[in-house]
Amino acid sequence: MLSYVLSSSSVFISSKAYTAGPSTEAQPVSPLQCHDGDPPYYCYVDWSGKAFTVHWSGDVDHPDLSRFPVVDNASVKAVETSSDIALLWAASTPVDFGAQACVRCTHEEPFPIIKLAPFSERGCAMMKHEFEILGQMSKYDLPIPKFSPEPLIDADGLYGYRMEALERTTTSKWGSYAPEIKLLVERMHQQGFAHGDLLPNNAMKNQQGDLVLIDFTFSGVLGTAIPDHIPREVFHSDVFHAQADEDMLRLFYVGTPTTPPLVDNELYRHG
Ligand SMILES: Nc1ncnc2c1ncn2[C@@H]1O[C@H](COP(=O)(O)OP(=O)(O)O)[C@@H](O)[C@H]1O
Ligand SMILES: [Mg+2]
Q: Which of 52, 81, 223, 269 is a plausible cystine mate for 85, CB 3.0–4.6 Å?
């Protein structure tokens, strides 16, 4: 059930909007993953607050999960996690996911949303980088989410962090957000940061109705060395620079407030 809190300039979907208590319906919590093995496809699935992998072959669409954990023509495996991660999964519900992370809601104010690394060393390295750069950005007046300074850690190190609940911006409104997004990115650059992943779904609204940028996996301090986890094609360089952001802005936000973005952002739903 959805609950709404009215804010000054928009209808804000509060963290209570994300289903309280584990859902018994299995749902994918990662994009399709391909690997060299057989079967070639897999994705992560949440079922009653537990993490599973589903491996399959043939059609790229994931198989029917309605009778989970029974899935025809697929193999289902529970993911082995630390007890800290298992407890956090059990106490939270899926909100969304991107290419680099799984986002869940714990309903614990003031930071009900948790962003968790994929179950891999590389995923945790990326999350550590994101958390560190957020810490640096938070020293300035920048359009970023409010987040807990206490990261989520287990015996293997940092695997996520907590932040405020934000509202999605809708595809149809992108045109009108363009000028503001440009200003936000300029502010980032002026304070010495590159964002690195300016896809439309990486801007959201906070409870005050202000736009904030999210997803700092590929962000960094301008002029400093780019860590190995960031794909070469993001910056085509050894150091963080502003041009990659400018190029993304041009791709998505060119035009007047009434002009739709050049690229259908549904294609980039999980960027
Ligand atoms: N604070 C938040 N409140 C609500 N939803 C969020 C929040 N942060 C992220 N999300 C949702 O999770 C998705 C993935 O988060 P994101 O940080 O972009 O991860 P990724 O690095 O995998 O792209 C976002 O597109 C958004 O829909
Ligand atoms: Mg994203």
A: 81
Q: How many CA atoms lie within 13 A of 259 on its CB side?
A: 12
Nearest ligand to the CA of 168 is: 1
Give the pair of three-digit tokens for residue 53: 């992998």
* Domain segments of the chain as ranges: 15-163, 168-268
C-beta neighbour count of 73 within 10 angstroms? 11
Q: What radius of gyration, in Å, describes the C-alpha atoms of the chain?
A: 19
Say how many Å lie between the CA of residue 73 and the centre of ligand 1.
31
Closest Cα to atom 16 of ligand 1: 215
SS3 content of the chain, % helix, strand, coil (to 5): 25, 25, 50
The model's pLDDT over 169-213, given as tens digits with 9 standing for 90+, comes to 865 456 678 888 999 999 999 999 999 999 888 999 999 999 999
In degrees and rounded to multiples of 5, residue 185 shows phi and psi of: -65, -40
Distance, CA of 261 to CA of 267 (rounded, Å): 12
Distance CA 47, CA 71 (A): 13
CATH number belonging to domain 168-268: 1.10.510.10
Cis (ω within 30 of 0) for the bond into 231?
A: no
213 close to ligand 1 (CB < 6 Angstrom) = no
Q: Which one-letter amino acid corresponds to residue 143? A: P
Q: How far apart are CA 136 and CA 134, in angstroms?
A: 5
Cα-Cα-Cα-Cα torsion 151, 144, 233, 264, nearest 10 degrees, comes to: 120
